[in-house]
Amino acid sequence: MKTKAATASIMAVLAVTALAACSPGGADTSAPAAAPAEAWVQKKVVLYLPDAVMKQRVEVAYLSPYLKAVDEAVAAAAKAQPAQPGASGMLLLMVKPGERSRAWLVTGEPPMRPETVEAITAAAGAIPAPSVREGPILVGLQFDAWGGGAQPEGAVAPIPRDWYAHFSKDGGVLDDAFMARVWPD
Q: Are 20 and 26 in contact (CB under 8 A)?
């Protein structure tokens, strides 16, 4: 007897649950919403100049905190922007003697919105640059934004498209003379 009563109770609960799932306002059967992708995730640091040149021009003790501060600033700037399709690329940071810096952003497809690029490069430029000597340095922060997208085409260490105009027809090297053409004093 007790078994029949228990079975009847279980069947009643199942019937009510099934009816609730079928009726408007019933049980929610949709999949849980995915967490939104982070607006900025730094993947790695890329040195655009040979290690020996970098060590000659800047102290690691000054460069590392600078790069960390830039990463934090641009992450906050990206987070303040409206979500957009994922993008991947490189934030290039050139630092010249006199504690001057400038930032460029290179992405693959899809590109970031122009106002987002401006916000990110402005945030990077607002961080006080470390002291460098004997010439400029160039460092890249590889990143994924809003889940990432295609990497920029070409080199492992991409540069902005308009920089290619500063190379000769036979190519060129990324040296002090090149950087002076890209960012004249």
A: yes
